[in-house]
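Collaborator request log, item 7. Partner lab (contact: R.S.) asked for a structural prediction of Signal peptidase I to inform their binding assays.
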Amino acid sequence: MSPRYDRPGTGRKGESSSRSGELYELLQSFVLLLIFIILVFTFLGRVTEVVGISMVPTLRGGDRLWVSGMGYHPARGDVVVLTRFDFMDEALVKRVIAVGGQTVDIDYVQGTVSVDGVVLDEPYINGRMLEPGYNNISSITVPEGSVFVMGDNRNESMDSRYMELSVVDERCILGHAVMVLFPFNRIGIVK
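Returned to partner:
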């Protein structure tokens, strides 16, 4: 029986260094992927799930949204994702009704919302708005650096009409809801 001679890199020592090299390459790939994900979420946006029915018919519970926050400045009519952990433990999805310096008047008898004396055309709302049962705001001038937000499903939305939430500091806004990503049958731009 002749002695066995392994070629360099094919014996046990070679297998070990080959596996170490593969592990090192895998670790490098993982770190690069992690950095890429962090950069995407930091600069381009994030994915957020809609919870509840306050934005029906525009959005539904379970919809996954692409939310862009980079350089975003809120504008009236935008759908935004915000956090107010003193109010609720999860991110809220609402529509901006007014920005700093604008005055909001809500006429519960007529079921209308006016900004600076002009009644808003709101084809996106879900039915006629009724007066909430308690602690509601019917007129307010929004302070600079804040927004007044409401859900499209006005009768099922805890929003700026309630003193507990009221106006929202712009710093609480995570970003602008750009599009529905999931479920696939609802993919589209958020309007």
